[in-house]
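Hi team,

As requested, here is the filled-out complex form for the iron/sulfur cluster run. I kept the field names the same as last time so the parser does not choke. Let me know if anything looks off before we queue the next batch.

— J.
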Amino acid sequence: MLTEMDWDHVSSASHTPSGAESARNYERGAYLSVHLARWFAHMGYRAVAQNTRHYDIALPPLAVDAGLGEIGRLGYLIAPCFGARVRIFATLTDMPLIPDRPISIGVDEFCKRCKKCAESCPSKSIPMGEKIVHRGALKWKLNEDSCFEYWSKVGTDCSICMAVCPFSRLVASGKVTEHDVFEIHLLIEPYAASEAAKRASSKDIDDLHTLLTMAEENIDDAEYLQRIRGKFHIRLARCTGNPILLLLMNALIELLRQYFLDFKELPLEKKAMEANKEILDAITERNPEKAAKLMRMEILTIKKYAESWAATKAKRKPL
Ligand code: SF4
Ligand code: SF4
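And here is what came back:
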């Protein structure tokens, strides 16, 4: 599991508020992981909380396997919505669970070019070059010793790399409005649909069909349909083969999910599913103009529903 570190505090790095926010999140993670462990134990399973007071395993690789994000050049996990502004915790258990799978949000490709964290690191602990094999894993190898030495010098846990990483900043300010999100959505997704119609492989098309079949099998479950809708749009962006587009789409879908946490409208979801079927038909027909036009119409429909819902909602969910 992850906890989100507040952007205003992280952006103060390397000053005290960023260190305080880090400590606050270690405490939040300890609380959550211990409560989860106690809950599992009450149900008769073994459970061990993994947090700042007790680690049996390294958590970043586990978080990658659990599909929570990817490891960036800076050596931290980068999560789809919060970027590197997260702390990782876990509860180990023998409870039978359905495993998640690693995800790709384009971090690898982005980090190859970006290097902002390495350039900004005051102790030069983040490599500018390629990944190396370290203890059997191919990774950008952070120099933990020089990083920690710098922490001792400044008296905080620095976090400059976390603050400068574009993934942390992309959706972090809390000043992003739903208008901003839909504006970008309308800009990039018709393009993604049109490019998908040109570039999608037969495997891509099969995967999109599978998602829509899953939706049809749960046609009266608005929450499920909404989740599949998000996955459909992300999978469609993946068809383009452009990792930046995929990254943006992941961020957009996550933002929309956060804005409209309580917004689960079955008529809208059914409408969107029908629209997605038509978009997929246009992609299968290799008709980029039609795919883009249908996508634009779908986004405008969702925008209209979402705006009227937001207008009637007295208190907006915070980002
Ligand atoms: S925490 Fe600071 S010193 Fe350590 S790697 Fe990040 S920027 Fe460099
Ligand atoms: S700052 Fe750039 S290179 Fe460093 S982790 Fe973030 S995206 Fe990757």
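Two things worth flagging: Residues 16-42 form the longest helix (27 residues). The chain has two domains: 2-168, 178-312.

Thanks,
J.
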